[in-house]
Amino acid sequence: MLSVRELSRRYSRAVKIICGASPGSVRRVCMRILIIEDEEKAAEFLRKGLTESGFVVDVVGTGEEGLFRALNVPYDLLILDVMLPERDGWAVLRELRGGGSAVPVLFLTARGAIPDRVRGLELGADDYLIKPYAFTELLARVRALLRRRTERQPDVLQIADLRIDLLGNKVQRGGTRIDLAPKEFALLSLLARRHGEVLPRTVIADQVWDMHFEGDSNVVDVAVRRLRRKVDDPFAVKLIHTVRGMGYVLEVQ
Length: 253
Ligand code: CA
Prior knowledge:
Blueprint: H1 4-19, E1 32-36, H2 40-52, E2 56-60, H3 63-72, E3 77-81, H4 89-98, E4 105-109, H5 114-122, E5 127-130, H6 135-152, E6 156-159, E7 162-165, E8 170-173, E9 176-178, H7 182-193, E10 199-200, H8 201-209, H9 219-231, E11 240-243, E12 247-250
Parallel strand pairs: 1-2, 1-3, 3-4, 4-5
Antiparallel strand pairs: 6-7, 7-8, 8-9, 10-12, 11-12
Helix pairs in contact: 3-4, 7-8, 7-9
Bound molecules: calcium ion.
Residues 38-39, 81, 83-84 line the site of calcium ion.
C-alpha cells in the first residue's frame, strides 16, 4: 500500500503532466477523480480506463485513507466501493457529508440489493453502479456527474465586496480592480472557493505550489502577507484571517 505522502507526490506529478494549465491561469483544465477500492485488479482497471479518458486519477485501498484524501484534496468526483477495510463506504460517505463535503460520489459495489442502493442514495451518493459493470457505462455516468458539477460551479465568486472572476483572472473589491501575480490569484481563489473553511498551511502549499512540506516552511505565510497587503489592507472589512495553530480562512467575521 502506498503512503499518503507517496500518493500525494505521484498525484502532483500527474497534475503537472496532464493538466498543463496555461501560463498565468489557475483554472483547472482537467478533472481529478479519487478511486477508493480495495481490490487491486478492479482499481487498476478503473485507473487505467479513466486515465486514458483524460482524467487525473488517484487510487487508495482503504476507507480510512480515502476519507483522509477526500477531505484534504479538492476532487471533482469520488468512486467509492462499499466493502472496504478499516472503514466501509457507508461510513466514508457519512463522514464526508457530515463534514459538509458536496463532492459527487459514485458508489461502485457488488451489493445490488435495493435496500443497499436506497441506503447509498439516502446517505448522499449521487449515483450507484453495480459490479460487474461495463466501463463505457461507468464512463458515461462519471461524465454526467462531472457535467452537473461543472454547471454548479460559478465562474465568478462574490464574497462581501470581493469579486473574483475565475475565467478572466480578475479581482475587484468594491469595484476597485486589484492586480495579483498568478500565485497570489491561485491562493486567493483557493481561499475563496472554500470560504468559511480553515485551510491548513499544508493544504494551501499542496494546492497552490504543488509542494509537500512538514513544519517550518513559511512560504504560505509570506504569500498570505503579500496577498493581504493588496486585498485587505486598503479596505475597512478584512476578509483573510489567521487561525492560530491551524491555518487561514477567508470570510466576513
Ligand atoms: Ca471491496
